[in-house]
Amino acid sequence: MGVTVVSTRVLEGKVALVTGGSRGIGRAIAERLGRDGAVVAVAFGHDLAAASGVVERIRKGGGRAFAIQAELGRRGDAAALWAAFDAQIEQHSPEGGVDIIVNNAGIGRGTDLASLTEEEFDEIFAVNMRAPFFIVQLGMKRIRDGGRIINISSCAARMAMPEIIAYGPTKSALETFTRNLAKELGPRGITANSVAPGIVGTDMNAGWLRGNAEAEAHASSLAALGRLGQAEDVADIVAFLASDDARWMTGGVIDASGGIGL
Length: 262
Hints:
Pfam families: adh_short_C2. With 262 residues, this protein is of the alpha/beta class.
């Protein structure tokens, strides 16, 4: 009696773009989508070595990936990103185009109302909201019908956190943008959803969390599931949204916080 082998490469034939894909949550997302069979464009701003490492790990796992550089938060950033994508995509996927856009890149500013400067305010909105907006706008001629747009938000979008007063509003705006995309692009079968992580053990939180047992214990206590979030916890949710299993989900915000604030 023969054994039927079921492939787990549910994204075979798909192309994914992941911004901020060289580290943290973006790295985990890129590697997971690569394992699921997608050709992954790992977009990064500064760290070529880290992005190349992600590409190499995807390839060693039997996947396909390439790195593209574009520093977000500047005028013309989305156009530069897509130009870098267009320059390489046909080498990896001859038909070109993209199926999955993951707007993951983001920055945080541990600054309160009294201390936040206009320059810092402009920068955080430019990276966290303006860049995703124009990446999607310019991506509309590239994304295929039935595609997926997944925006990485934060539980800070729904919680008062005055110590990072500008960060939460950028994510609230991103979630509103996502709902509008769902309505706008629904006729093409394109879904748009937000994923909202809580406290995750990544480089973004390293300054106050890594190596600090007391801070880690406190962060873990905030989650109903009683532990610190990991990048892979978020990546697995993104992989579900990217798959056909999530074809009837759009315009939503998926909590990926382990139950923070319940």
